[in-house]
Amino acid sequence: MTDTPIDLLLSRHSVAVRRLGGPGPDQQQTDQILCAALTAPDHAALRPWRVVVIGRDARSDLADLFIAAKRKRQAELTDAEAGRERDKALRPPLLVAMVARPQRLHATVTEAEQLACAGAAMQNMLLAAHFLGFGAIILSGARCEDTEIRSALGIAPDEHFLGFISVGSIVDAPLKGRRPALAEMATHLDRTMR
Ligand SMILES: Cc1cc2nc3c(=O)[nH]c(=O)nc-3n(C[C@H](O)[C@H](O)[C@H](O)COP(=O)(O)O)c2cc1C
């Protein structure tokens, strides 16, 4: 039986980069994933975010930058650790850097609201990837604050580098994290408010 849209939405989960491989989204699917971001709710149409799609030719340099950034925090890297850093740059068929650029003193839309918009845009890309049958994950960490990586990707000091979105075919069955029970997340207000 075909999954309904709500089944699909409720079944989304992240897929670790080591479980991703080719083929990745083709050009049309890539455009669909990126366009999904543009359907995020956006108060006053500020579009307080942008993306950098990191193409194949840039990946080897990015891998070197990931390893160099890791070495700044940990002088001695094992081959396995360096390999994992390299993998994060080279393995995902589609790799997108998500950058939030909220207007700090907007008259009506707070910075928090604008960051929520950027988060919704990211989630829409994850969902679009999932709906198209791909696996995806967002990873941030210290590499998003690394000045060399930010500068190589053209990310300004006053922008928020939220994370790398990796998308590809699922080549190894992912571990699915536990979801909290609804009662842990929602409270109900069922009385008059005076
Ligand atoms: C902005 C952002 C950055 C994230 N960065 C990391 C990260 O650096 N490392 C990590 O293990 N998970 C990170 N996560 C969480 C994973 O992407 C993922 O959501 C988590 O492993 C839970 O899996 P799930 O999406 O299937 O619930 C990040 C999530 C967000 C929204």
UniProtKB/TrEMBL annotation:
GO MF annotations, alphabetized: oxidoreductase activity
Domain of life: Bacteria
Record InterPro entries: NAD(P)H_nitroreductase, Nitroreductase, Nitroreductase-like, YdjA-like
Keyword set, alphabetical order: Flavoprotein, FMN, NAD, NADP, Oxidoreductase
Enzyme class: oxidoreductase
CDD domains reported for this sequence: YdjA-like
Sequence positions that bind FMN: R12, H13, S14, H43
Entry's EC annotation: 1.-.-.-
Residue stretches in coiled coil: none
Cofactor(s) it depends on: FMN
Domain annotation Nitroreductase: ranges: 11-168
UniProt xrefs under Pfam families: Nitroreductase
Record's cofactor remark: Binds 1 FMN per subunit.
Record-stated family: Belongs to the nitroreductase family.
Descriptive protein name: Putative NAD(P)H nitroreductase
Lineage: Bacteria, Pseudomonadati, Pseudomonadota, Alphaproteobacteria, Rhodospirillales
